[in-house]
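Sanity check. The docking grid for S-adenosylmethionine depends on where the pocket ends up, so I'm generating a full predicted complex first rather than guessing from homology. Inputs follow.
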Amino acid sequence: MAGNRPGTGEKPSAVSPPLWQLLQTVAQSLQAVRQGQSTSRLLPQIEATRRAAVQSLLFRVLRQLGMAQALRQRLAPRAPAPAVDALLCTALALCWDEDQAPYDGHTLVNQAVEAAKRNRRTQGQAAFINACLRRFLRERAPLLAAVQADPKVLTPLPPWWVARLQRDHPLAWQSLLQLGQHPAPMTVRVNGRHTTREALQARWHSAGITSQPVGRTGLQLDKPMDVHLLPGFDAGDCSVQDAAAQLAAELLWDGLLQTVTPPSGAADHSAWRLLDACAAPGGKTAHMLEAAPSGGRSVELLALEIDATRMPRIQENLQRIGLQAQVRCADAGEPATWWDGRPFDGVLLDAPCSASGIVRRHPDIAWLRRESDIAELAQQQSRLLEALWPLLRPGGVLVYCSCSVFRAEGQDRIDSFLAHNTDARLRPSPGHLMPLAPGNQPGLPDNWLGDHDGFYYAVLEKSLG
Ligand SMILES: C[S@@+](CC[C@H](N)C(=O)[O-])C[C@H]1O[C@@H](n2cnc3c(N)ncnc32)[C@H](O)[C@@H]1O
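Predicted complex below; grid placement will be based on this.
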């Protein structure tokens, strides 16, 4: 047996539920994802004692779903009922790769059949599930070879997604797909107002937690762990934030500190007036405050969020680090409903997007999205850019970003914005950052942040005259 519990660093519960029960829950969750529900809504509904185990297995299944679907199609060309298909795909995703499988193949098949027998939606098909899975175990090598030889059948992510990646990133698309099948690293941002990176790293080291510096203020953990067990986390000494995401506040402050002083009367010189237009859960809001230069001007930060259910997370984050912003529930694209008419020195627009750059962290994303979503999101991103630009003072800086690797949500948005906003200038900016592990990027510029999420960044400056 390759292992007897799902292992990605999550702690096992004191009493582990039987595997067939976990498989049932994972298959039901997979069916729900296929019907359009996100794992971030599904997982909190699962009983706490088995949530970590279910998450670990479900994420593994979602990452291997392309292969599982292709195998299911070979084993049963006529699609079975959704509940049966979900259980079959769950079992296949967990056992097709012998080297990575969390369970021995025969154990898994026995338990999948047990799961089928104990659910009224699948019990009538338990013998069929048994036959399909046992045939897979017997004929594993030729079945895998047949599936791997047919790129029309085997797509690790939905075909439209793969085609878009290939078109947008002809050099990197295969690495992107490959990397999407592995969990992302756990990276934190050190709060320079509380401690230094070196001090926190040393403190963790003495507690047996090893990490590597990344970017300006980040530490990447060698092994992911429960964040509340990280010394200093609950006291606000650090926050979980991907290395590429940490650039948002850095680029904004770098830009602001280079801005030309506006003509008198055009701005209030006693405080930096900043806007975080799409703020929840508040990771970048907190960073904007942490990274503010000490001494001199104070910071007035307005954090907007359209979704009232996501607002408490912003406050929780700010409370933990002990800093303050004005937090409001509003549509950033309708300034008439919330703007007091005083221009901002700096704006961060972390736009709603497909999240195609963080598919490793949220492997349900690719299966939840439709191709038509991308055009709708692009339209929303442009609407927000156009609505917020007039709120920036002359000489001010707007940082646009999205955690997407699709050009339609990055470079294309900025090209189209610049084409008809002659008072906007693009400062030297990172552009599209690829989520590639170091050394895995033929023909691409240096991956100076190490292993990070996919992001797009543009720093726009407003002309003075
Ligand atoms: C990419 S997330 C922001 C992540 C956040 N900046 C962070 O670092 O923690 C985008 C957020 O924008 C919000 N949003 C979407 N449309 C909006 C709008 N028109 N006005 C304000 N917020 C919006 C979404 O609800 C979501 O919480």
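Relevant for the grid: DSSP finds 17 helices and twelve strands in the chain.
Also worth noting: The mean pLDDT is 91.
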